Amino acid sequence: MLRRIEYMNESIKTINYLGKEHGNFNQEWLAHHKASEWWYATGLLNDENNNLYSYQIVLIKTAFGNLEPWSTQLALTDFTNNKHYFFEKAQKDGEGYSVGDNFAKRDDLLSIEKSNDGFIINAEADNFSISLQTEFGKGAFWHADNGYLVMGKPELGSTTYYSYPSMPTTGKLILDDKTIQIKGNSWFDKQGGEFQSLNPLSQWEWFSLRFKDNEQVMLFSFPQDDYQDGTYITDHSQRLNKYTITPKKIIEVDGIKFSSGWDIDLPGIKDEHYTLEPIMAGQRNGAYYEQVSRIFDSSNNHVGDCVVELLPGARTPDFKSDWGKR
Asked: PANTHER family this protein is in (predicted)?
């Protein structure tokens, strides 16, 4: 069943959340009534001098009963100059947002549009702007149980989750009044459902391993629940439930604990053992803690890169969200 929620002059097209009985990729693009969800892209891009940048753009809807606050988050890291930029605008309703069959937008801050060939992304933050054109690459893949992911424990809820994990990307970045031509690869997630988003037990650590051979591994783990799920993607997908993530250390940022640096064991998958080493110190992007990392195999060869996103409740059991103060 479709619903349409009107916010001022903008509209958000929604469907009901159906869990395991979800629709196809296009249907699940839409917002879900009384669900928490996000349209989320990260990418690793180089300029003409091979300087490395990473970006994160995300539209987030969080459901609290009949309330559905939204936020827009935009982040950029300039690894050559060791600089990180983050912009967020959060509000208690969906005014200024619109979601349709082929787009998700927040006024002039962020636009994600699907074309016949890929995504067109335009983001405008205080300190930077970015305009990107992606291809769909190898296409979209469901994660976990054919797109159905339990959020730690069944009683905490679930989400529907798919990705476009390998999208060739070109575009331009405007930073410090300079226009920079960039190209590389992006990963797009659409995920959402009915779950206890503020319960620390439902907060996760997410690893998107992007290998140079154009294979990918997505790992979604809940350290407090000792539950994990994941996907190995070649030209098809394979569910991963048996793997081990061992943090090299636990750090503390703003009184919140996060893991940092990891040994990952993937029995029966590729070279099975990998080490992730953050390129630079991590950054707090609103609710997320981001660490872009190099992937090394057991022979210490650099075989890919990984964007790691960590939620505060994953390692801090008594974490309390500040959403009510926004």
From this structure: BLL1000 PROTEIN, HYDROLASE
